[in-house]
Design goal:
- This protein is an alpha/beta fold.
- Helix content is about 30%, strand content about 20%.
- The protein is built from 10 helices and 16 strands.
- Bound molecules: zinc ion.
- Zinc ion binds near residues 119, 182 and 360.
Length: about 425
């Protein structure tokens, strides 16, 4: 069967390039329907049954920017086991600093170039042509395979995998295993990610004349106190905590906190009047470890704010939760990990387990669809994701195609 992969290299490259040439930029979510159609028509031409699922009812599914997902199904002798291969086809904006056309899909120097090359249009191509290689080798599947192209992973996946899971189109009732070919490195299997807690802290002061600030209470000063306490007390505590999950890079094995943005008082580029700021707010990005849990993570922030409120006269605040993503981790001994480890040993002679510093659609498979046996494995280098001059090595694309093809055989219990 692996010999069949050699014969499809040109097609896999051409398909990746064609996907890159559709600028599915998110935000706002451009050309999704075109990209879903390209994936759907390709799957149909390779003998998959194809369905389109527009995310009806989601607020981001609009006439200008429809959220269209596509699923192809190749049924084997039986419906189960069913392996679902999922790739998001949205990409982040190109940004500056490119030396190639970000949406040209150029093939040069053994690489495919462009926004989404590694994250994760090459991954979608690897999934499609892994299953196709099995067909060309004349091997009938025992179980079944689905391949989906989904939207909005970069903005949370709520109209993509989460929506398909809420509709029960991806669900434990039909789906046994899932592989998401995200670019974590061609020899690495990603077993999950840390949790995310985005929150806003607003401090409230009292307006007064700026020439007599002692008559007011500066909300900016008070938010400064919050930042100071976070830096002196919280940050060292977070840096001292370490997860047992193999998150990469190793510095991301600790709990972290980042300030996304801050605004208070008057707009600095507007006309100025002498006023003490009565409002200031900042948005924070706290990445928490599976060992910490969300409740403790939030309680720690509340405790810090409450302790400032006890120490500082007139300190008044409001805490608002903006987004919570719970950490996820593939269970130990999962068949999907074993299948990929074996396949990697055969194709590359090496494999490693890692976890992601950020989050991706695995959480929706695990928490909404109830499919815990899910990992990310795909071609491309993680560090190149969202960077200028993003590319995927053709050798990576083809090796990932081989590995996924072997895992498909294993997980569908197909004997070849
Ligand atoms: Zn991605």
């Amino acid at each position: 069967m692996l010999a069949a992969v050699e014969g499809i290299e040109d097609e896999a490259i051409a398909f990746t390039s064609a996907l890159i040439r559709i600028p599915t930029v998110n935000p706002p979510g451009e050309h999704y329907a075109d990209c879903a159609r390209l994936i759907g028509e390709t799957l149909a031409s390779l003998d998959f049954g194809v369905e389109y699922h527009a995310a009806e009812g989601r607020p981001e599914h609009t006439r200008d920017h429809p959220r269209v997902n596509v699923i192809g199904t190749r049924r084997g002798r039986s419906d189960r086991p069913l392996l679902h291969l999922n790739g998001h086809f949205d990409v982040v904006p190109a940004g500056d600093g490119w030396t190639v056309d970000p949406f040209g899909g150029e093939v040069r120097d053994g690489r495919i170039w462009g926004r989404g090359a590694c994250d994760m249009k090459a991954g979608i191509a690897a999934a499609v042509f892994a299953v196709e290689a099995i067909r060309r080798a004349g091997v009938p599947l025992n179980g079944s395979v689905e391949i989906s192209g989904t939207v909005d992973e970069e903005s949370g996946g709520f109209a993509g995998v989460a929506w398909l899971a809420q509709q029960k189109r991806i669900s434990a009732d039909r789906t046994d295993f899932a592989i998401i070919p995200e670019p974590l490195g061609v020899d690495r299997i990603c077993i999950g990610h840390r949790g995310v807690y985005w929150f806003e802290v607003q401090t409230r002061g009292r307006i007064a004349h700026g020439s007599m600030p002692f008559h007011g209470v500066s909300a900016i000063d008070h938010l400064g106190l919050v930042l100071d306490r976070m830096r002196r007390e919280l940050q060292p505590a977070l840096a001292a905590r370490q997860t047992s999950v193999p998150v990469i890079p190793p510095a991301a094995r600790h709990a972290t906190l980042n300030v996304n943005g801050i605004a208070g008082g008057q707009a600095v580029d507007g006309i100025q009047t002498p006023c003490v700021a009565d409002r200031c707010r900042a948005v924070f990005d706290r990445r928490f470890l599976i060992e910490e849990g969300f409740d403790n993570t939030r309680a720690e922030i509340v405790n810090l704010l409450e302790s400032i409120a006890r120490d500082v006269t007139d300190f008044s605040y409001a805490l608002r939760d903006l987004m919570v993503v719970h950490p996820t981790r593939t269970p130990d001994g999962s068949p999907v990990v074993a299948a990929l480890e074996q396949a990697l040993q055969r194709v590359l002679g090496r494999s490693a387990l890692v976890a992601s510093p950020g989050t991706y659609d695995q959480k929706h498979f695990a928490r909404i669809a109830g499919v815990p046996h899910c990992v990310a494995y795909g071609p491309g280098i993680l560090d190149l994701a969202h960077q200028p001059d993003e590319y995927c090595d053709i050798a990576d694309l083809m090796n990932a195609t081989r590995v996924i093809a072997l895992a498909v055989l294993d997980l569908t219990r197909t004997v070849c």
